[in-house]
Specification:
Elements (H helix, E strand, L loop, with lengths): L42 E3 L16 E5 L25 E7 L2 E7 H12 L3 E5 L5 H5 L5 E2 L3 E4 L4 E4 L2 E2 L1 H14 L3 H11 L5 E7 L3 E6 L8 H9 L4 E6 L2 E6 L4 H12 L3 E5 L6 H6 L2 E4 L4 H5 L6 E3 L5 H27 L15 H6 L20
The chain binds magnesium ion.
Magnesium ion binds next to loops.
Length: 381
Amino acid sequence: MTLPPLPQTPSGGTLPQTSSGGTPNQAPSGGTPSQASSGGAPSQAPSGGTPNQVSSGGTPRTLVASDLDRTLIYSAAALALDDVPDARAPRLLTVEAYQARPQSYVTETAAGLIARLAAHPGALFVPTTTRTREQYLRIRLPGPAPRYAICANGGHLLVEGATDEEWHAGVRRRLAADCAPLAEVKAHLARSADAAWLLKERDAEGLFAYLVVERALMPESWPEELADWAAPLGWTVSLQGRKLYAVPRPLTKSAAVAEIARRVGAGTVLSAGDSLLDTDLLLAADRGWRPGHGELAAAGWGAPHVTALSDRGVRAGERILGAFLEAVDGAAQDGAQDGARGAGRNGARVGAPGGAQGAARGSAGDPAGAAGSAPRPRAAR
Ligand SMILES: [Mg+2]
């Protein structure tokens, strides 16, 4: 799908066209959709402040580790606004451009919520994505730039935009010890994928591979057959929209989240995600949310502490962000009350059975928190 050049919002972002290809949604006159109530810089401001520093004032720190694509941010194809009359469609803010075209969006409301979350003194917001670093760094979320981010499904832990080399070297060692090499998997993909539906084949930072496929032409059984082939080699398969990922099993988001939780002394971990590659992230958290679309929803996947939302598309992003903020505000209030009672918990850890421990289950030493619970790759369009 191609989109013509689009008008600029007052903040410099662009607005996508409606599904009918008609008049783009109008930005609010004089408004700045990407700006939070704080009125700060619209996106990714250099970290001159310390919005994501570990709180030392006794405020409980909740780590919010969220997947991005189809969880917080959405491509035009994933907006799922078909049931909304064009005249009532939510205003959207472009948060990613690719080759000079708008690529990913959030609703105007979600933009404000992201900014609030990123600046919240009781929260550490950690974008947690399978994207490569280059793909991640294209995204310009509202609010202060997150101090930490997780890219390449845990293969890169970014600290103020730069990878932690020690973490990355540890991941490489683990993969070399436990999994078949990437070259073997790529060779199999090249042999077994059919040019009739294979659009692109990509190597993600030398860590894993993904294909861009024409879903309508790809046999539905192919991802499962690939998963069966890959499992004995220590690899997993995930199908997300037009992308099919082959990823080493120990390469997990939860392992990197556990490392950040350890570094900052986070007590509670919240997470959200839509795909099979998010299962370990969701299972390792104290509370999680998944949208009503995507691979996990298609599989009917769930866990007692994971809320399965019925919302689909870009509106699910709003719901997830609202839930994050409600939980963070609640934890901050609980912590303040504990402090007032002189509980003397100097580490400011929020009491959360299975919380820090849960995150630790996803540590590099035992990264497969989702082992045995992961659904099979299934059709999730
Ligand atoms: Mg996703």
